[in-house]
């Protein structure tokens, strides 16, 4: 069932007694209103993506009660957030801010430290503060999802004029995804690069009991900074925004984002490639096309197996054996699909009016056909429920949920990703594919790689789908992930993002010059958050009172 009683009781944070914790919670209830503070003392409830829990990771790699909140608090304003920060400093209770908490595959809504009090910013702070139809920008609060922003454009009749950029799944928060440096699939797919301006509540308390709120970039100007806040991200002096992404240095309460002008037409295309060995030559063809913007969006090159898994059926429909599904079985089933038998599928989109698209599409077609066995799939032959049309919606700024389907590959389907970054080179694609293949074979897990090609780099996303109720499978998944992270690091590849459980390991691979970068992050952490209350351990950054005390995983 989706609901279970807590086995380990109320997860009280380490370092505080139960009575002291409960009295601190009563104090917080008095400060914010009792209905805005919920104790997590009864059960674990999983739900599904759109009704995801805000207390724990519904796709746990370890025990569900390991990364779990003791309570959830729902601030309604920046002032409420300041009150929570002050309260946490007084009682030395760890806080974990989330916007929506649908960061599935990377820990969902779960805190890194068991018993943290989760600040669910999205529930009540969910206003779209501005959509500027002249500048093509917006200003949002944490609870604004990609769906909500898109629906607002539609409601205001602006969707014909401007687009949002959405990740594969549209239910997440624009702020949450951007702070975790997530990507989407239009030319505005690098969300972090497309944001402009943050408002941040800092985690410490000053001598007079004050909590600071700062605005970055042009928002820092004393008078009228908001005028250009969303138009120019840098302002004057050090560009500070970076330290608030993938970190635990502040709680973001507002963010500006650029919106994309409707390009005046769009057209998705799909190519298949026959052999796994086509990977390296194909990546070599993609690189110059991508850098020169003939390939205009963060396109995906997916393994054929994903075309099968995204149909949403369990793996057992195709294969009853154990271990990775054999290649000939994958190919046999692919033959019955609209995609046909292949090793790789490329999904892309061309933008602009027909005559401009035609020019680019001709070049792409000619270049891709240098690979023998390359096939262009004519979209007009594809039924409306084909996955291709989900990619079509996403790459043209319409949020979607189709991507959820491959989670059904396993019972109690959960997923966790290996996400290394490399240059767009055939050799690098081969290296990463080979090491992933080896570790997956050892673990007996199906390999589902997708290369997402940016402007100078590509992210390889390998999602491992596992049964959350199968301890042996979870152990193997962890072993496989940890092995791939280490193998990749030895070859000079690092992850762009990772799950809570793997953050220490991944942070540890960025160790150049005696871990100078982590030393700098620790210095910042101790200065900005001297009591160490904000998201301890997130992205491998531990406050002083936790550091080297056995918290690292
Ligand atoms: P989404 O639902 O969009 O996938 P989340 O809300 O789960 O994203 O956010 C992803 C991660 O980013 C969170 O686990 C948290 O560590 C961090 N985060 C999200 N929102 C904020 C915020 N407003 N301030 C600081 N950190 C945040």
Question: What is the CATH domain class of the largest domain?
Answer: Alpha Beta
Total number of domains: 4
CATH architecture of the largest domain: 3-Layer(aba) Sandwich
β-strand percent reads 15-25%
Give an account of the 3D structure.
By secondary structure, this protein is α+β, with helices and mostly antiparallel strands. It folds into four domains: 3-120, Uridine Diphospho-n-acetylenolpyruvylglucosamine Reductase, domain 2; 128-261, Uridine Diphospho-n-acetylenolpyruvylglucosamine Reductase, domain 3 (2-Layer Sandwich), CATH 3.30.465.10; 266-499, Vanillyl-alcohol Oxidase, Chain A, domain 3 (3-Layer(aba) Sandwich); 510-553, Vanillyl-alcohol Oxidase, Chain A, domain 4. Helices cover 29% and strands 19% of the residues. It is built from 14 helices and 22 strands. The chain has helices at 18-32, 78-91, 146-155, 174-179, 191-194, 279-291, 304-309, 327-334, 354-368, 387-395, 426-443, 471-490, 503-509, 512-528; strands at residues 3-5, 37-39, 43-45, 69-73, 95-98, 116-120, 128-132, 137-140, 162-163, 195-201, 213-215, 251-258, 260-261, 266-273, 299-303, 344-351, 375-377, 413-418, 420-423, 449-453, 457-467, 494-495. The strands form five sheets. Strands 14, 15, 16, 17, 18, 19, 20, 21 and 22 form a nine-stranded antiparallel sheet that branches. The radius of gyration is 23 Å and the shape is globular. The mean pLDDT is 94. Bound molecules: adenosine-5'-diphosphate. The site of adenosine-5'-diphosphate (ADP) has 21 residues, from strand 5, helix 4 and strand 12. The site of adenosine-5'-diphosphate has 21 residues, from strand 5, helix 4 and strand 12.
């Amino acid at each position: 069932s989706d609901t279970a009683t807590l086995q380990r009781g109320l997860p009280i944070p380490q370092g505080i007694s139960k009575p002291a914790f409960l009295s601190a919670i009563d104090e917080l209830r008095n400060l914010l209103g009792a209905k805005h503070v919920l104790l997590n003392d009864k059960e674990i409830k999983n739900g599904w993506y759109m009704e995801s829990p805000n207390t724990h990771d519904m796709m746990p790699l370890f025990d569900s009660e390991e990364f779990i909140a003791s309570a959830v608090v729902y601030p309604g304003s920046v002032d409420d957030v300041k009150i929570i920060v002050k309260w946490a400093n007084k009682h030395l209770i760890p806080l974990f801010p989330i916007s929506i908490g649908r960061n599935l595959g990377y820990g969902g809504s779960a805190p890194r430290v068991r018993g943290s009090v989760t600040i669910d910013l999205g529930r009540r702070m969910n206003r779209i503060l501005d959509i500027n139809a002249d500048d093509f920008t917006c200003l949002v609060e944490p609870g604004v999802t990609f769906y909500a922003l898109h629906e607002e454009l539609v409601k205001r009749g602006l969707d014909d004029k401007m687009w949002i950029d959405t990740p594969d799944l549209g239910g997440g928060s624009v702020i949450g995804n951007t702070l975790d440096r997530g990507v989407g699939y239009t030319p505005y797919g690098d969300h972090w690069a497309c944001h402009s301006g943050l408002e941040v509540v800092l985690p410490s308390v000053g001598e007079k009991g004050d909590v600071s709120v700062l605005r970055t970039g042009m928002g820092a100007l004393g008078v009228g900074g908001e005028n250009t806040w969303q138009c120019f991200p840098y302002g004057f002096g050090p560009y500070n925004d970076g330290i608030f992404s993938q970190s635990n240095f502040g709680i973001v309460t507002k963010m500006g984002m650029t919106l994309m002008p409707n390009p005046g037409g769009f057209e998705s295309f799909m190519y298949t490639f026959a052999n796994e060995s086509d990977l390296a030559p194909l990546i070599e063809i993609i690189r110059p096309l991508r850098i020169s913007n003939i390939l205009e969006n963060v396109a995906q090159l997916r393994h054929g197996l994903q075309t099968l898994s995204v149909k949403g059926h369990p793996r057992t429909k195709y294969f009853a054996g154990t271990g990775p599904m054999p290649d000939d079985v994958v190919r046999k089933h692919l033959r019955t699909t609209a995609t046909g038998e292949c090793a790789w599928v490329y999904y892309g989109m061309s933008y602009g009016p027909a005559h401009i698209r035609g020019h680019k599409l001709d070049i792409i077609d000619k270049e891709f056909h240098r690979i023998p066995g390359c096939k262009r799939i004519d979209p007009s032959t594809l039924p409306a429920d084909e996955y291709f049309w989900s990619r079509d919606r996403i790459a043209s700024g319409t949020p979607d949920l189709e991507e959820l389907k491959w989670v059904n590959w396993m019972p109690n389907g959960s997923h966790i990703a290996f996400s290394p970054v490399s240059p767009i080179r055939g050799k690098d694609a081969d290296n990463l594919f080979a090491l992933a293949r080896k570790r997956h074979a050892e673990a007996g897990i199906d390999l589902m790689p997708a290369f997402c090609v940016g402007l100078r780099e590509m992210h390889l996303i390998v999602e491992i789908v596992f049964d959350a109720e199968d301890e042996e499978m979870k152990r193997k998944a962890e072993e496989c992930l940890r092995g791939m992270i280490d193998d990749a690091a030895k070859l000079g590849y690092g992850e762009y993002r990772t799950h809570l459980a793997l953050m220490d390991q991944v942070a540890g691979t960025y160790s150049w010059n005696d871990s100078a970068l982590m030393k700098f992050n620790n210095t910042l952490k101790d200065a900005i958050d001297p009591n160490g209350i904000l998201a301890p351990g997130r992205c491998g950054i531990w406050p002083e009172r936790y550091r080297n005390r056995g918290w690292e995983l």
